[in-house]
Design a protein that fits this description.
12 strands, alpha/beta, Rossmann fold, 4-stranded antiparallel sheet
Length: 313
């Protein structure tokens, strides 16, 4: 698919998110830029504390941004925006959270949990219209309509995550941020939820930002992947290209940690450990560069020359 012909749904430009006080600021995300095309699944991968969830929460306006722009369908959505645009963003961008136990209100029935967003945004709906939308959203995620009258504690982790997905779907969003949506689930349930997300994407024409720390899951579901380390994106490429030609030492370390299904290969593989001191950025500073079509890496001139040589091998 040619990049020029594709519609960019979301642009993140030079994004910075800062926590803490003015006297003791902590910059959690610095200088992050990427585009997400309509209809694709864009992966953001990195270890715990790398800033990936912070970016997701900045897009959905939970975390304020200290610099840069987030542009959704041509409109800037970070910082101060009109109430009308805020309402539109609430409907068009939804988030599926990591922990289905913590993100559902234990004291509310499923019917209310799933329709809560509708109640806030589409106030004109009658009770019957709302109930039929809840039934459809539950059916879309493979749950029975009679589940609407139950409480979250009556469900398994996988079913709770489906309820969380139904809660996002009912808003008819265009863009869904899935923040580690399967990491709290049993391995046997994970594939079901991933397959469900893929099926829903085709059916509803959704675009996903899929946040995870596990590259093997990413390979299964994403079109492109951005690798983030300590708040900085170090590499971005189409998924298969990234697996075939990982350039940045941090990406290589993440890939080398993926367990292999074959025990003999697993025993023989060499784990790469990322040591940031391998970069000498004292004089030759790193910059974000496109090394081959659609493949970007954070590197200085010396490293770029090495990476180009590696791609030619």
């Amino acid at each position: 698919m040619e990049h020029e012909a594709r519609e960019v749904l979301l642009q993140v430009k030079d994004l910075e998110v800062t926590f803490g006080t003015k006297r003791r600021p902590f910059v959690a995300v610095k200088g992050v830029s990427f585009d997400i095309y309509k209809g694709e699944t864009f992966g953001l991968v990195g270890e715990s504390g790398s800033g990936k969830t912070t970016i997701g929460r900045a897009i959905i306006r939970i975390n304020p941004t200290s610099k840069g722009e987030i542009i959704f369908k041509g409109e800037k959505i970070n910082g101060k925006i009109s109430r009308e645009l805020d309402n539109r963003i609430t409907q068009q961008i939804q988030m599926i959270f990591q922990d289905p136990m913590a993100s559902l209100n234990e004291r509310a029935k499923v019917d209310y949990i799933v329709s809560e967003g509708l109640i806030n945004v589409q106030k004109h709906l009658s009770k019957e219209e709302r109930e039929s939308k809840v039934s459809k959203a539950l059916a879309d995620v493979g749950l029975l309509p009679e589940f609407a009258s139950r409480f979250p504690h009556e469900f398994s982790g996988g079913q709770r995550q489906r309820i969380g997905i139904a809660r996002s779907l009912i808003m008819e969003p265009e863009f869904i941020i899935a923040d580690e949506p399967i990491s709290a689930l049993d391995v046997s349930i994970r594939a079901q939820v991933l397959n469900l997300l893929s099926a829903l994407q085709k059916e509803h024409g959704l675009t996903y930002l899929f946040i995870a720390h596990d590259l093997s899951v990413m390979r299964f579901i994403t079109d492109r992947i951005a690798v983030i380390h300590k708040g900085v994106i170090v590499e971005l490429a189409e998924t298969e290209k990234l697996f075939a030609h990982p350039l940045h030492p941090y990406t290589r370390a993440l890939l080398s940690a993926i367990p292999m299904p074959d025990p003999i290969s697993e025993k023989q593989k060499v784990l790469e450990v990322y040591d940031p001191s391998c970069h000498d950025y004292s004089v030759d500073k790193p910059k974000w560069s496109e090394i081959e079509e659609g493949h970007f890496v954070m590197a200085n001139e010396k490293e770029l020359a090495e990476y180009r040589a590696r791609l030619l091998d």
